[in-house]
Design goal:
The structure is a homodimer of 315-residue chains. Chain A is built from 10 helices and 10 strands. Chain A starts with 14 loop residues before the first helix and ends in a 6-residue tail after the last helix. The first copy, chain A, has helices spanning 15-37, 52-68, 83-94, 114-120, 132-138, 161-172, 192-201, 216-220, 272-276, 290-309, and strands at 42-48, 71-77, 101-104, 181-185, 205-209, 225-228, 246-249, 253-256, 264-267, 281-282. Chain A has a 5-stranded parallel sheet with strand order 5-4-6-7-10. A 3-stranded parallel sheet of chain A has the order 2-1-3, with helices on both faces. Chain A has a two-stranded antiparallel sheet with strand order 8-9. The longest helix of chain A is centred in the N-terminal third of the chain and has 23 residues, at 15-37. Chain A has 2 domains: 38-135, Leucine Dehydrogenase, chain A, domain 1 (Rossmann fold); 159-293, NAD(P)-binding Rossmann-like Domain (Rossmann fold, 3-Layer(aba) Sandwich). Helices cover 37% and strands 15% of the residues of chain A. The A-B interface holds A 132-133, 135-137, 139-142, 148, 178-179, 181, 187-189, 192-193, 200, 203, 205-214, 219 and B 132-133, 135-137, 139-142, 148, 178-179, 181, 187-189, 192-193, 200, 203, 205-214, 219. β5 of chain A pairs antiparallel with β5 of chain B, so a sheet runs across the interface.
Chain lengths: 315, 315
């Protein structure tokens, strides 16, 4: 098998390098879009309160927008903002033709009903891809016609960012998904279920494993592709992995580590050192799925702008 | 293993008898609801044109309503009705507090955009359970809390009727779903995907098989529970079935049969005679899943009326 340029010489899938490649593609497409139609994609980011982590994430997203040629619009609110004021801002952004994507940075303060605010975002501007109507589209197998061609770059709706990132990592590291057996570990709304739907749309035969699965290791060991998104540190052991399988680790868990200066270290849901010896390819944590999420956010924003031009962005 | 009263003496799951039992339960609950709150559940049925089959289905549904104590309201439109008039009727029914469920009999004439009419139905009155927002709720694992108790009779939204019928047939014939391996054959929006989601919510470990699956028979043979919903006559053969598995056949296919008076006969997606010898339990076609769909429609209407009372029927 040829070694794709986007992965390093060994069997580690380099999420940072693949995300960088995708950001380069987006930059080129933004430039072409500007030239052909005069349109610059726009992302509105809403930040409430002064959580350091949220402020960091927002800064990273805005910087990423600037680098690829997407306009960003940042709106700061104090932590005592009312739900009504936030919803009014979202409604204003829904109506603004310069805004193709709206991102409300989570978590919101406790007095605000998060889902209510998120559901206010027009599905066509929901670049996180978590609106129920976007999830339902992903489950809608007939949408994609009898050819069953399913191309993430031309979907008529927004698919969730982290799940899309998993698919890109699998495909760009040289694995064809169609016809493979895949196992998704975890059934969360934001990762497990959309990853299942994406793999199924890509014509894999997919099984979802969860806390009530009997003999999870035996079920997992059938898989050519494993996506772990369960949030339990190093749960997936080498004897869960079929030799040669592709392993994508969505987990980010903090574990105590007295030898580290910070007193802890970050690990995935997969026992990386052990599984690396069995897997065909594997993502590290950090540096695997993580960098892909922002790249997919940028791509969703670009696609939203393109759909707007073709008249598909009404609602 | 004890033989439940709802199945016949051999290993055939009697859908007609189980549907009858459920209709009896609904009748009791409707009587209790009337007594406690003065409310009678109401189902509006909209029929367009004069297709004989559609008229028959509508008549069956209205008769079933009468038998259990649900009000039915029938609206007939000529086949040249405009889309706008149909949508106006749905909007009127959305606003009518005596109507808890709205059913638009399909197919609609070609000049009407079916999905547009269906999407007009309020999700809370979509007793067919096919509205995208209802499908998204079914995919929403967090809705059901950490106890993971998932009770079809108290869902806060409408799940699709035929898929619900499959679950009832499995459970009422004495099979516990939790922890089992299940395989769904077919990934349609109206059956395969919702059946997958329901089995997953019921804590089975579920795999979806489809046209691009390699070695489907081997994958199917792992399953303790098989739901076939692919629309191909007798595709599932005895060597696909693990001895003792529960087999639910959603297919209804017409095949030529010169020995029959009508020249054809109805068969499922499962080779019934062959698989019956291997399966622990199996549904026939007809008389298996078919009778369950109307029973689930009645139950959705009843649940809609109950939710309306508790203030959960706003939108």
């Amino acid at each position: 098998m040829a070694t794709p340029s986007s992965s390093s010489a060994d069997n580690i899938i380099d999420g940072k390098a693949i995300a960088e490649t995708i950001r380069g593609e987006i930059k080129e497409e933004c430039a072409a879009l500007l030239q052909s139609s005069g349109v610059t994609p726009g992302l509105a980011v809403v930040l409430v309160g002064n959580r350091t982590d949220s402020a960091t994430y927002v800064r990273m997203k805005i910087k990423a927008c600037e680098e690829v040629g997407i306009h960003s619009f940042k709106f700061d609110f104090p932590s005592d903002v009312t739900e009504a004021d936030l919803i009014a801002k979202v409604a204003e952004l829904n109506a603004d033709p310069a805004v193709h994507g709206i991102l409300v940075q989570l978590p919101l303060p406790g007095h605000i009903h998060e889902q209510k605010v998120l559901d206010t975002i027009l599905p066509d501007k929901d670049v996180d891809g978590l609106h129920p109507l976007n999830l339902a589209q992903l489950a809608h197998t007939n949408t994609h016609g009898s050819s069953r061609k399913f191309d993430l770059k031309t979907l008529p709706y927004h698919a969730a960012c982290t799940p899309q990132g998993c698919i890109e990592l699998i495909e760009r590291s040289g694995t064809v998904i169609e016809g493979k057996e895949a196992v998704v570990i975890g059934r969360s709304n934001i990762v497990g279920i959309p990853v299942f739907l994406l793999l199924m749309q890509k014509n894999a035969t997919v099984t979802v494993i969860h806390s009530r699965t009997k003999d999870a290791s035996a079920v997992c060991k059938r898989a050519d592709i494993v996506v772990a998104a369960v949030g339990r540190a190093e749960m997936v052991k080498p004897d869960w992995i079929k030799p040669g399988a592709v392993v994508i680790d969505v987990g980010i868990n903090s574990v105590d580590d007295p030898t580290s200066k910070k007193g802890y270290r970050l690990v995935g849901d997969v026992d990386f050192a052990g599984c690396k010896a069995v897997a065909g390819k594997i993502t590290p944590v950090p540096g695997g799925v993580g960098p892909m999420t922002i790249a997919m956010l940028l791509r969703n924003t670009l696609q939203g702008a393109k759909r707007g031009l073709s008249g598909g962005n009404g609602n």
